[in-house]
Input
Amino acid sequence: MARRAIVAANWKMNGDLALVDAMTAGLKTVALQDNVNVVICPSAPYLSSLVTQANVQSLNSAIAVGAQNVSEHESGAYTGEVSTQMLNELSVKFVIIGHSERRSYYKETSTQVAHKVNAALSAGLTPILCIGESEEERATEQTETVLASQLQPVIDEVGIEKFIDVVIAYEPVWAIGTGKTASSEMAQETHQFIRQFLAQANESVAAKVPLLYGGSVNASNCEELFAQADIDGGLIGGASLHVEQFKTICSAAKGK
Ligand code: PGA
Output
């Protein structure tokens, strides 16, 4: 069974044109293991420059560009939104959907997240669907219920077969930007739960979906996390703003 690994950089509302240049120049010499994709997700205004720079630097085809969000609507009067068609026109291949910051600050519901995943898949984009529990939910042993409640509406809307083109990022909210990483055992246990949950709907699809871990991943802890049986790479925030550190993380990932 070949399951690809993915290391995705989530720059959030950080970075600038200088980082676009530095990252694309740095990635020219990154050493990737077999069956690994790298995805850089800057803020929307930098997508076009990133695609252009990636072409100028003739980056390895395993390196792609992703957006941090997309509208569930095709077009029309939605001020401030970006459509799947616009991303396609820029040769953006991936899109992060349902990040916990969007769920909490912008009140995105799991139903809306499901609509966005559907829109992305229909447009041929690969969604990086983010799920994860809060500190309180973990403390009160609701982690599995919460993850199931975030996944089920998406399965219901797009159908489990389409998950063959979905990437899932498990990000415990309490580990994001806090320096508190889940232990590799805890992360593996939760990833295993997610894969089993998908397997109840379709075993062969579940075996192929890349499951990324996110939350304070850095150059020191990535190797141990990526070595876990159900962890297929990471969604990297803070550490993805530092070219050399990010390259180290990319080199640690390996397809399974
Ligand atoms: P972090 O962010 O690596 O800074 O914790 C991860 C994310 O939110 O995607």
